[in-house]
Amino acid sequence: MHLLNPFRMNDWDNKTFFRVFQTIQLVFVGVVCLSLIGYHIPIAREVLAFLYLTFLPGILVLKALRLHDLGTIETLLYSVGLSLAVLMLTGLAANIAYPLLGYAQPFSFAILFITIVAVVQVLLYLALTRDREYTGTRPELGIPSSPAVPFLMLFPCIAIIGTYMRDNYHMVTLLFLLLILIAAVGFAVGFDRLIPASCYPFAVYTLALSLLYHTSLISEYIWGYDIHHELHLATSVLIPGFWDMTMPYNTNGMLSVVALVPIYSLVTDLDPVWVFKILYPILFALVPLGLYRAVEKQTDARIGFFSVFFFFSFFTFYTEMISLARQQIAELFLMLTILAMIDKTMNRNKQALLMVTFAFAMIVSHYGLSYIYFFSLVPAWLLLVIPERLKSWLPNWITKSMALLKSDPLAPPATDGGVPIRTLVLPYILIFAALAFFWYSTVAEGTALATVTGIGDKIWTTLFMDSFNPTTAQGMQILTSQSTTPLHGLAKLVHIATQGLIAVGLLATLLKRERWRIEPEYLAISLVFLLINVAGIAVPFFASSLNTSRLYHITLIFLAPFAIIGGIAIYEAIAEKIRTISAVPFMGSAYQALSVFFVVFFLFNSGFIYQVVDDNPTSMALETTGDKPVFNSKEVQGARWVFTEGVERPIYVDGTRWWLLQGFDPHRQRYIPANASLVEPGTYLYFGTYNLVRDSIRIEEREHAVTTAAYTDAGWFTQNRHRVYDNAGSAIYW
Questions:
Q1: Nearest to 74 by CA among 289, 282, 279
Q2: pLDDT digits over 366-377, tens only?
Q3: Which residue windows are transmembrane per the record (predicted)?
Q4: DSSP assignment string, 480-515
Q5: Would 252 be classed as within a structural domain?
Q6: Distance of alpha carbon 130 from alpha carbon 319, whole angstroms
Q7: Of the candidates 261, 441, 518, 585, which lies 20 to 30 Å from 503 by C-alpha distance?
Q8: Contact 423, 345 (CB under 8 A)
């Protein structure tokens, strides 16, 4: 049976495209209407609405741009990115225009649903009229005939069932099994067994989604840190049906939170909590898939796979990022920017349009990532253009005598002295700067712009006095701090080794450009990102503005492939000296050695090894005790009560439960001080399950860029206080 490839709908002939598209739209509208009158078909509305919103608008934009024959992966990724950009712009336009027309609730279901369907119809008209000459092809859906496909399909199911068993029965057996299977896939690819190269893209996506789900789905409520404030802002749009653009929070200027979450919530009829826990991981798992494609196009399939395996093995991908929804969407747009940037075959005008669109979408999704990317563009551009300009400006006798100028290590391979094709150009950088300045200076009262200028001022004033100071440079503090156990110390050495592999890989790429055909734009930005890593260790208050682990995670978007290249280069250098190395177990080839190393890296990062030997476990999913920002329904119920009981009193809360209360009202809470006598009279004290069971509270203190925590007896703070609320999982004292 031959099926048309649904991921390449823009490559179909116009008649087939129109019929199928309108059928999908009619079914979607019909299911929504049935749901509104009380006939709810389980899962149908949620699935159809998600597919409709996430895929179809972008397909129409690709067709309107007459972009065809991109391939399945590129078409899927570009269509998702363009769809999200269309949704965010639609929400922004509705929020501005409808109040002027007398509709005070643009973010209500009826208005938003009609608006989105109308926008899609306009895009359909543009697509069919602009692409009327296209005769179309009939690309078939190619599913690899390998037993690896159904095997890999089980991974997300194991993650879903495993988190259910964890939450309800405190059983983590299936989650242990999931991590073992992911490690087994890493071994299988390294030893070239079971998983054929045709399955690598599918393996990358299912493994990434499984890792995200094995943490995001724990608890029936959101967990983590910033995501609680993101939930508060999304709810503050949904309840009044209007986005207040003047609320002075950095996150309030991010359409990835204040527009995209309400749109998905209203149209799919999902609570925002489940939008964060289910839908956003589906989108975020596309980032490794896109990075795999970008690396594979420049190197080969196995380097692409291990680059992404390294990227998503680092714990930040499936822990911290779960609680940073806005950065998940921004990284998706950064990945799409990379994919468009390295494509030297696309029409230059269409490529520029895609890159500018993704740049704007990144800017309105997360300010931190946008700043880092922008501040890397200028030095990367200089690295590309200065050698070229020197060759043209300096006399021939000077260039001939300077070996550095004879061979430009960042020149495109095989240009033979011709004019190189550059996709990282000055107009793009200027447009990015203008868009960022306009958005960050006007929305949310310019707080995003004020934040970065404040960080810059703090760095500048302390740069020459506190460089490499562990109290101000968070990266240096992590490197110099004493590991809690020898096993954790070994894990630190493994992390440091990956940094060494990256450095070696970059050097090997620069020295052997004819072998490692990395695009010069990608290589130039990677060199700057390596310096950003160094700055995270040396520069005061630089890494702490994001968090060192998040900063390293961001740099791995570009740097991960060079760890693989570095590993291959080291292996080949050793093999040349030691001829018998291939006889050593697991060292038969560079890929086998790399698979062993990165599987060990994964097992450390996932917390699997610590959990097995019971050595200060770190896993959010496997460790069911301990004090973590994971909250149960009784804690949520208690927090909701204290904010709705009618009296506007300050609420004292410890360092972990602080984040839960952020999701309700960020104005009333106070950190519990180390000295109980400093707690104001006539205030509330909120205790969660951990506080009650352990009779302990977490006290946090911050010195410059480093936060330290200690636990103290809760009894000191409950003396002379009345317990006014108790549900056996949380308690409120007055």
A1: 289
A2: 999 999 999 999
A3: 20-41, 47-65, 77-101, 107-128, 148-165, 171-190, 202-223, 274-291, 303-319, 354-374, 419-440, 523-545, 551-571, 583-604
A4: HSPPSSHHHHHHHHHHHHHHHHHHHHHHHHHH-TTT
A5: no
A6: 44
A7: 585
A8: no
* Beta pairing, strands 669-671 & 706-713: unpaired
Q: Measure Cα distances from 445 to 371, 417, 440, 488 in Å.
A: 18, 50, 8, 44
| Domain total of the chain | 2
| 405-426 pLDDT per residue, tens | 445 667 665 444 455 678 899 9
* pTM for this prediction: 0.94
For 238-266, give one letter per residue: b (16+ CB within 10 A) or e. Answer: beebbbeeebebbbbbbbbbbbbbbbbbb
701 has pLDDT over 70: yes
**Is 596 a domain residue?**
no
The full length of the chain comes to 734
Residue 74 CA neighbour count, 13 Å, CB half: 22
Report angle CA 143, 147, 152 to the nearest 5 degrees. 80
C-alpha to C-alpha distance for 620 and 607, rounded to whole angstroms: 8
C-alpha to C-alpha distances, 293 to 304, 339, 441, 578, nearest whole angstrom: 7, 8, 35, 34
Alpha-carbon distance of 408 to 396, in angstroms, equals 15
Place of tokens 């404030």: 229
Last residue of a domain, one of 108, 130, 152: 130
Cβ(689)–Cβ(659) below 8 Å: no
For residues 705 and 703, what is the distance between their CA atoms, to the nearest angstrom? 6
- Burial (CB count within 10 angstroms: exposed 0-12, middle 13-18, buried 19+), residue 488: middle
53: Cβ contacts below 8 Å, ≥ 6 apart:
83, 87, 116, 263, 264, 267, 268
In this structure, is residue 695 part of a structural domain? Answer: yes
Kindly state the average pLDDT of the residues 44-63: 96
| DSSP 3-state of 453 | helix
Does residue 56 register a pLDDT over 60? yes
Instruction: Print the domain residue range for 676.
Output: 633-733
Domain boundary among 106, 130, 154: 130
Tell me how far apart the alpha carbons of residues 113 and 129 are, in angstroms, rounded to a whole number.
25
Q: Which of 187, 340, 298 is nearest to 565 (CA)?
A: 298
What gap in Å lies between CA 696 and CA 691, rounded to an integer?
Answer: 5
DSSP letter assigned to residue 552 = H
